[in-house]
Automatic annotation (TrEMBL):
The keyword NADP applies. This is Aldehyde dehydrogenase. Its EC number is 1.2.1.16. It holds the Pfam family Aldedh. The lineage of its organism: Bacteria, Bacillati, Cyanobacteriota, Cyanophyceae, Gloeobacterales.
Amino acid sequence: MVQAQSPARPIASINPATGQILKTFLPLGDSELEARLELAWRTFGSYRHTTFAERAAKLRRAADILGAGREQYARLMSAEMGKTLTSALAEIDKCAAVCHFYAEHAAGYLADQPAQTDAQKSFVRYQPLGPVLAIMPWNFPFWQVFRFAAPALMAGNVGLLKHASNVPQSALAIEAIFQQAGFEAGVFQTLLVGSERTARLVADERIKAVTLTGSEPAGRSVAATAGQHLKKTVLELGGSDPFIVLPSADLAAAAATAVKARMLNSGQSCIAAKRFIVVEAVADRFEQLLVEHFRALKVGDPLLADTDIGPLATEAILTGLDAQVRSSIERGARVLVGGGRLAGAGHFYAPTLLTDIPKDSPAYSEELFGPVASLFRVKDLNEAIDLANDTAFGLGASGWTNEPDEKARLIEAIDAGAVFINAMVKSDPRLPFGGIKTSGYGRELGREGILEFVNIKTVWES
């Protein structure tokens, strides 16, 4: 039973490009929240016995609904958190793709696995755990949810979404998509509640596991609460991904990709390249290319097709980023491009490139969540690897070289959950995604992702 909670303030959807309040919602009351938790638990009792074919048919319908409404959903994301329309449309397409992927592959991933033992018969069976609480961030309002929901629902679990409080309309739209696709109301529910009620949700005995994508402090808090109740968690937290450029690299391609990798979602991405580590022999040329690309970026209305950088999602994010940049400059970092917030309405920050970054500055050790890049010069591959690993984070890394030995060394030596060679880091339904160190633990996507929230049951028959 969820304990009584004092009245909470309304949850507001605010357009970050204008500061206009789009809509407000009253958080769920105690009785409403209790009813949703109980519905999830009751629904799991029957939903777990549905067939893969039944689940897959509904998940494919969800993909069709996403495709039919892609413009509407994309505009909703742009209005609610400032994502450019171009990237929002791509996000909807990716959500549809992950639905199709798990609709096709879940049955194979979760089929009984025979084992060779001295038993008459032995095998491994994969069974759902129950209601899974998903605590999701605002930066990819649809994708983060669907990459959890598609495998979780295909495995026979039911989902409860506690979305970021600044994207309530996206959260409700996703719930509606699953219901329109034919899933029972209790299979996927959105819980409009504030973060102050998260701990009680994690502790509730009906919730059997938790997945969180968000900040390191949020991850520590959720993991601590879940640990007290011995519940499985998957955490995808922050990142400060290195982007290493070696002398044999195609510099033009590397620089063009570097800008895309940093400015993904206006720089508000955990897997965005944030630290550009360049060997001295090619550093001048690479810096020149980066500066040219940064200066060419267009900041403005996210709904316009030629906008590259939209607003940051909230005033707090903008203020925090600006403080990190100012502190880095005060400690000796040099500004090559940009360096501050833009005048006028909305939460806009200039595309910024910093260099000569001292070790005691935020730009060296902290995650900068916005359109700000840090450029470092190193003497060789060894120094590049040392600098790449000199971080508390370990999410992704990108390395640029045409030398086979250097490719092998980067793959082996970089401490990260993913290493991309001559490409920008991205998530893909076909591959596991996640990090190490303070970037979290566990994996989403791929076969590994669907196995996170199942009981891996050993069966032995004599």
